[in-house]
Design a protein that fits this description.
26 strands; alpha/beta; 5-stranded parallel sheet; ADR1-like 1; 14% strand; NB-ARC; 13-stranded parallel sheet; ATP binding
């Protein structure tokens, strides 16, 4: 994002204020001012979307945006002259009115021109209709129904409603009191640059911080300049410092790519009066980390959220989160357990109150334990009460007490559901887990199909043991499995780790590192003389060299999760000693793609069925080096892949003879697909998404006779589809949405007799095949999703095909999703 979007956004905002004043005071310029207000109001969301997306623009579009920034700057100067001009100077006012009319035309041309389409192509997290995004998931679930009326989409909606209802219950005196006290510290005290929220895990600290950020008075005070960062136990300090410094200086692109210009240490300087800024640091665990993230600059405030109380020299004022009162606790528990805020007549009032009392006013414990007891018989409740009473030894800390209490909600789960919950400890704290990764893992190790995996996912969500979210990550985002991810409260992750790490280290079913470290745990090294019988192994480190690993044997390991943050990474040699490995997940949380070394270990992965690579340089796939005969799913996200697709040495059907699903997402160096991909006869799903440089598809794409899903959305440089697409006799779903330079659909598309759905939203330039093309042969077509500009091209088919539904979508420029 080289475009100086921060200044463009600031200029546009200031210009709007001036224009509103002109509209009220100047008769000659009122019409132009009103029109400019309308145009800039439409433009501001797009400028902000670029600002928060982290997308790197091409040189041509960069220059266009830079020129427009200068136009806005000139407009601001003109507006000031209009306001400064006296009413008596008629000649000068007429000149200024003509200049305002000229400025109005310049801005109008920019807003209504093709630039809007280019911007939308680059902003890959633009949301449309929630129902439509989740409809993509419906293809995988088809007619599956869970619970009282739905599946993942309904589960997400239920969770959103539940969260709002919970806030309504606890948002009385306690939350309002906390909000008012914290607001006074950050708004009413100019002498405080750092303030804090302190409370034990599960007490609602993050909920309070989020409510502060959404508060209209706070947003107005800081002019919406609020940055929310989750620090966690194992933070990437350089990346966090770069994010903060980039936000402060208006160069947010640096916050994702460049640490060279960030001042070292706790910065203190005397800038002039810059814009007010609030940075929220959530889940801070260490004083040394906090000191590295504080920038003591005038008009800049830091809100620290932590379960630890830091010295007053660093955080002078702190609000301690109060636990819920008895009546609030009862209401929240009843809402989770009974779906109402009071004890129903059929329930044992004494028993309910005893269990509520054991939750000790902790919102998270009340919600989780309440949900786990929902619809259970009274004997079940009595047993839970006894377990809660036994789980409170006097010598333990509040944190351990909470874990023991909440373990009750897991102990009563169905065995497979419990195992899936414990698997969540394999992923780093405070990170979104791509749904695709989780489902693939569960399918491979628990002997279930995808439908049952989704059912388990929704059950865990309904019991408040995880959260389903529509992904809105900034900068390093990727839309995996149709923009749905899983998150988990850090206390719930601690619970999964607490339950998984019991017993002898060599006999644990899951061998997990609780947080990122510079080396492998000493406990592992001390026990290398015996094999480790873990089914899941999860490693979380920084850069790893060959000498940093030690030999370990994993005869039963089926899943290996490698979480790291570095620019280079030596793959662990012990992969050779994982003969049963079925799923390998490699995720780099660093700022740039990491170079993988020791890729030769892949030659021995005969049982590997699922491979997920994220933010790495994919090595060259030469035939003798890599041969994965049983691999079925390959996902490459935010990777550098062009070097791996050398057509002179690449024989994809030889390397991946059973590949059924290929995902390439946000790989910005992908220009062409290798022609040998057309010979992978087993391929059923091909997703090339958010690859902004992809310019053409292989001419022989039609050879993929088993292909059912072809997803090409957000590939703006793609100008045409190959005519051979008509030979994809099994194709059921075609997605070309946001392919803004795609001009027309080939005539041969009329041959796709199995095609059920076309998604072509934001493809306003696409022309459907001429009326001479027998589109009526699309016997299976049931749905076309498109923009209003091109809908007429499909309307005439609705009469000939009564089962066809042409759905027109509206362009939506809301930025509400950024609040997540």
């Amino acid at each position: 994002m080289a475009f100086n979007d921060f200044f463009a956004g600031e200029i546009a905002t200031e210009l709007l204020k001036q224009l509103v004043t002109i509209s009220r005071k100047s008769c000659l310029c009122k019409s132009s001012a009103d029109n400019l207000i309308t145009s800039i109001d439409e433009l501001l969301p797009i400028i902000n979307e670029i600002k928060y997306s982290g997308v790197e623009l091409s040189a041509i579009r960069q220059s266009q945006l830079d020129r427009f920034s200068e136009t806005l700057r000139g407009g601001l100067e003109l507006a000031r002259k209009v306001l400064a001009s006296g009413r008596w100077n008629v000649y000068k006012n007429l000149q200024l009115a003509r200049k305002m009319e000229k400025l109005e035309k310049q801005v109008s041309r920019f807003v209504s021109g093709p630039m809007q389409a280019h911007l939308l192509a680059d902003v890959h997290h633009m949301r449309f209709e929630t129902m439509e995004r989740f409809d993509r998931l419906e293809q995988r679930l088809n007619s599956m129904k869970i619970g009282a009326g739905g599946w993942v989409e309904e589960a997400v909606k239920r969770m959103e409603v539940e969260e709002e209802a919970s806030l309504g219950i606890i948002g009385g005196v306690g939350l309002d009191l906390g909000k008012n006290k914290v607001k006074k510290m950050i708004i009413g005290r100019d002498d405080l640059s750092v303030v804090g929220i302190w409370g034990i895990g599960g007490s609602g600290k993050t909920t309070l911080a989020n409510e502060i950020c959404k508060d209209n008075q706070v947003r107005s005070h800081f002019n919406d300049r609020i940055l929310f960062l989750t620090v966690s136990q194992s933070p990437d300090l350089q990346q966090l410092r770069a994010r903060i410094w980039g936000f402060l200086t208006g160069n947010e692109a640096m916050g994702y790519t460049n640490n060279l210009f960030v001042p070292q240490g706790m910065l203190q300087c005397e800038w002039g009066s810059g814009p007010r800024t609030l940075v929220v640091l959530d889940d801070v665990w260490s004083l040394s980390v906090l000191e590295q993230l504080i920038f003591r600059i005038p008009t800049y405030k830091t809100l620290v959220v932590s379960r630890f109380k830091f010295p007053t020299t660093v955080v002078p004022e702190v609000y301690k989160v109060e636990l819920l009162r008895e009546d609030e606790s009862l209401s929240l528990f009843c809402h989770s357990a009974f779906g109402q805020t009071s004890i129903p007549p059929t329930a044992n009032e004494t028993l309910v109150k005893q269990i509520v009392n054991e939750c000790k006013g902790l919102p998270l414990a009340l919600k989780v334990i309440g949900a786990s007891l929902r619809d259970q018989p009274e004997m079940y409740w009595a047993s839970a009460k006894k377990r809660l009473l036994r789980g409170e030894p006097i010598c333990e800390s509040h944190e351990n007490k909470l874990l023991e209490r909440m373990a009750i909600s897991v102990e009563y789960l169905n065995k497979k559901v419990k195992e899936c919950f414990l698997d969540l400890g394999s992923f780093p704290e405070d990170k979104k887990i791509p749904l695709d990764v989780l489902i693939n893992m569960w399918v491979e190790i628990h002997d279930i199909d995808e439908e049952e995996a989704f059912a388990i996912l929704v059950e865990l969500a309904d019991k408040n043991l995880l959260t389903l979210v529509k992904d809105a990550r900034v900068g390093d985002a990727y839309s995996s499995f149709y923009e749905i991810c899983v998150t988990q409260h850090d206390v719930l992750r601690d619970l999964a780790l607490h339950l998984s790490n019991r017993g002898d280290v060599n006999e644990r079913k899951r061998l997990l590192m609780p947080r990122r470290d510079t080396e492998l745990p000493r406990e592992w090294e001390r026990n290398t003389d015996q094999p480790f019988n873990a089914q899941i192994v999860s490693v979380h480190t920084g850069e790893m060299r060959e000498m940093d690993w030690f030999r370990m044997e994993f005869p039963k390991a089926e899943v290996l999760v490698l979480n790291f943050s570095s620019t280079e990474y030596f793959l662990p040699p012990f992969i050779d000693d994982m003969p049963k490995l079925k799923a390998l997940i490699v995720i780099n949380y660093g700022t740039t793609e990491a170079i993988l070394q020791n890729f030769s270990v892949f030659t021995n992965l005969a049982c590997l069925r699922s491979l997920w690579l994220e933010k790495v340089w994919v090595p060259q796939l030469t035939n003798p080096t890599v041969l994965m005969k049983n691999l079925q799913k390959l996902s490459m996200v935010l990777c550098k892949v062009n070097n791996s697709f050398n057509p002179s040495v690449l024989d994809l059907p030889l390397i991946f003879p059973r590949l059924s699903e290929l995902i390439i997402d946000h790989c910005d160096d992908l220009i062409k697909l290798p022609s040998s991909i057309c010979e992978v006869n087993s391929l059923k799903s091909l997703s090339i998404t958010n690859c902004h440089r992809l310019c053409e598809l292989p001419a022989d794409l039609g050879m993929l006779k088993k292909l059912q899903i072809l997803r090409l959305y957000a590939c703006p440089e793609l100008k045409m589809l190959p005519p051979s697409i008509g030979e994809l006799i099994g194709l059921k779903y075609l997605d070309i949405s946001q392919c803004v330079n795609l001009r027309c659909l080939p005539r041969e598309i009329g041959k796709l007799a199995s095609l059920e759905k076309i998604d072509m939203r934001e493809c306003s330039q696409v022309m459907s095949p001429s009326t001479r093309t027998p589109l009526s042969n699309l016997k299976s077509l049931r749905r076309v999703i498109c923009d209003d500009e091109v809908s007429w091209q499909w309307r005439y088919l609705e009469k000939a095909m009564p089962d066809l539904y042409v759905q027109v979508v509206e362009k939506w420029y809301s930025l509400d999703w950024l609040d997540g």
